[in-house]
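From the shared-data thread, chain only:
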Amino acid sequence: MEDLNTTRVRQHKMVLTDRGICNITGVCDVLSFDVAEVLLETEQGMLMIKGSDLHVSRLMLDKGEVDVDGKIDSLTYSENTGYGGKGESLFSRLFK
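Structure, as tokens:
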């Protein structure tokens, strides 16, 4: 019988095509997005995607998959350990 309490870690993979289409797996949550920035929580840490005309074209959190379209200028990772403590918000820690 399967143990339902085990958490399955998804493989994190990113495919960037012509700086315009980014297919990402291993996504735990989408924290925010707008036309200039997408902030994702992944299995490997926080991922910030910056650019212009960004759109989340496909979102399947049950499978941990996200597709982002637009002009992608940068991809930045930060560690996701330690958030939620010391009374600081995620954004204040991320933008120090």
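The chain is about 5% helix and 55% strand.
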